[in-house]
Amino acid sequence: TNDDADDPDLDCSTVGEGTDAGPNDEPDNFDCTEHTVGSIDLVVTKTANPAEGSVVTSGSTITYQVTVNKVGAAARVVKVQDSLTFGLSITDVTEGTGVDCSVAGNTIECDLEFLTNGPISRTFTVQATVTVASGSVLEGVTVDPLDEITELNEDADDPDFNCSNVGEGQDTGVATEPDNFDCALHQVGGSDLVITKSGPISVASGATITYTITVQNVGTAAANNYYVDDFISSGITVTSFTTTEGDCDQIAPSFAGDPPWPGAATIRCGPFNTPPGGTETITITAQVTAPVGSNILNGALVDPTNVVDEANEGADDADLACGGVGEGLDNTNTEPDNYDCTSTSVGTVKGDINCDGQVDAVDALLILRYIVGLPVNLPPGCGAIGS
């Protein structure tokens, strides 16, 4: 009763459609379907906090946000691979809507759902801790790493950084960004403290001696809340000090807040907070009690409790044997480092007969006694008159 053979909604003449000879009754002897064939384009972008290219420090956290955008037809479930280099330790992965991730070592594999036509965006975030003191760290993310989906833009490189060890490929076509790969690079800086200590080569017994300790932060990050230890040997007594920050106390062999501090003793100064390129200065003034002919060692160590992670933690003196005044070891023997030592010989001052570091009336009286033949008693180690 109804031999009509057309589709009222679509033009399907190329696939057998006829015409309705009678009333346009539907359904009839013909039906047709039509699908629009669309293209798929997946692009990935990454943002980092702190911003990519900036300097981070060991122990700090970097947060990466990965966004994959789809335009065009439905693309089913899409694989994304996120790779981090040595020097980063993943601490957290937060999945957005339609995202399912798993972590194995320093690689994150995620499934992103793009099940409908039209623009869709999926995101996830990665938090990682910096575990190295210097160098650089990379994080690279690739969408559709196995090329299971044919796209308009299959390129997979980063135009700004060399990220070949975190999944970067090559642009086989036009270098159009964004594409299937994105990378973030951070330089790892940090504090690097070096210490130098200066003092006189020689000093008279009984005289005053002054040591100057200088600490420089030659790194790229601030060094905070650190101390400096000054190791004084026997033969001197500290009478005063100055410091650009904090305070100084004797911490060994017992605690004492104010001088005098007789050696041997350890004096701790600080805390210091030194910006990159900054300098701290400590002066230690002491009375020499060592006899003539002896030698005084004095060593200074910066950051003795290792609160600052540095590229050079060496703690020896390249020229002197100072094991008795705080010297440690230096595996790489790189100078300057966290330790420095001075050596001062104890002698006499011309005219200082009794070796008290001063030329005064007492010395004149001793000379007169010597001239008239009276006994002259001098301290041990003090040379005889005329010697």
Descriptive overview:
The chain is built from one helix and 21 strands. By secondary structure, it is mainly β. The protein has three domains: 1-34, no CATH class; 42-189, Immunoglobulin-like; 193-347, ntegrin, alpha v. Chain A, domain 4 (Immunoglobulin-like), CATH 2.60.40. A hairpin with a 2-residue loop joins β6 (99-104) and β7 (107-114). The protein is rod-shaped, with a radius of gyration of 39 Å. The termini are far apart. The model has no long low-confidence stretch (mean pLDDT 85).
List the helices and strands and how they pair.
Blueprint lengths: L39 E10 L5 E3 L3 E12 L3 E9 L3 E8 L3 E6 L2 E8 L5 E11 L4 E9 L37 E9 L3 E6 L3 E3 L3 E10 L5 E10 L3 E8 L3 E6 L8 E2 L2 E10 L4 E10 L6 E8 L36 E9 L13 H11 L16
Parallel strand pairs: 2-10, 12-21
Antiparallel strand pairs: 1-3, 3-8, 4-7, 4-9, 5-8, 6-7, 9-10, 11-13, 13-19, 14-18, 14-20, 15-17, 15-19, 16-18, 20-21
The CATH homology group name of the largest domain: ntegrin, alpha v. Chain A, domain 4
Shape: rod-shaped
Percent of residues in beta strands? 35-45%
Average pLDDT level: 85
> Helix proportion of residues, in percent?
under 10%
Keywords:
mainly beta; six-stranded mixed beta sheet; Immunoglobulin-like; 3% helix; 21 strands; 387 residues; 3 domains; single chain; rod-shaped
